[in-house]
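Feature request, filed as a ticket because there's no other form

It would be nice if the structure record came with a short human-readable summary line next to the tokens. Right now we just get the raw output. Example of a typical job, pasted below so the devs can see what we mean:
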Amino acid sequence: MVRRLAQHGLLEYRFGAVRKKDDVIIEPQMAIYWPRTLKLSPGATLVLSRFAYLRRRGNEMILESPLAGALVRICDPRIATALAALCTPQKISGLRRQRGFPGLELLALLVDCKILLKVDVASGGGLRLSEGDENLALWDFHDLAFHARSTEGRHANPSGGLYPYAGVISPPPAVRPRWPGKTIDLRALSSTRSETISPFARILSERHSTRDFDDKRPITLGEVARFLGATARVRRKWKSKLDLTEDAPEVAYAARPYPSGGSAYELELYLAVASCEGLASGFYHYDADRHALVPIAARQHELKTLFAAAEFAMDAAAPPQILITVAARFARVSWKYGSIAYSLILKDVGAVIQTMYLMATDMGLGGCAIGTNNIDLFANMTGIEFHVEGPVGQFALGRGRNAVGD
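Raw output as currently delivered:
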């Protein structure tokens, strides 16, 4: 029964409850989390993960990390003080002699949570490369925290349209209050007759979100091929040597229809198909180079969860005919850019989403951008670690219920 409750994230774990007061309380952030205390030898060297952070939540101190399946609510401030000393690598044998030693069991628990990590100082590889694989080494702290906490799957915080400040702060206006000063009226200069509007301007004016799809007339595989070819297919490829040093590496590039920061084109499309004429239901990766769909053996309950989340996010009566997950190969951007890598990725997502909207409008199809992603679900469906490649956007596609017939 305890295991079943834990699988739904309904349990918290008290640590140090044999005393009158708890030392810490472990709050699972993922349903699969189960506390473990790994064996640690006295000679092991520990250090705080560079992704770990301590913050105030109400009247509590919280220790957490985007890599952890649980956060730690610290009840004893002496523990926070002791952990702060681990900003530099220290041997367990030395920690035991210090006043306020938090206990071997707690340290082992934090190692399992990846809040602490074991390092080999003698290796000389540097702490950054000691933590995880080379893909993790490319992440900056703020980028990984933003990615993990602004999506679903790796935290237990409420998300979505919750209106948390309704009744506390007045709703901001839809249009910004006017700046003072002389106004230059552009309306007379920009007014044109409807018959002179360009086709592109007309598509821009007709673009809208479609949340209800016609189950009796599903989108066709031919339409999917045309849509993907126009929005995401690789147009050309080239290589260029970095102008840094004589032995600088050569970097490969592959241009696509939408703009991308630094020509990284790190975004990948994954299609969850519920209803498509000529294409079996399932989960597919779009190979933009070969303009082909490659099936991925996702489990049915994972597909149902993915569609159910999209249906809920759109406040729709049924799931979309096709749900496109926009994923990012993070290293493609962070290998070049520091500090702004994740910000650039999100800008690229906006560009590709607008491109999808306009193409869907041009084809007489319906589309709708979705603001939530479950990065842990995607990792389970693809078998790819969440920090290597993960979802950064979603787009529902299909034939709108009120669409005009072909």
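Something like this underneath would help us a lot:
The domain at 2-132 is CATH 3.90.930 (Outer Surface Protein A; domain 3).
Residues 69 and 108 are 14 Å apart (CA to CA).
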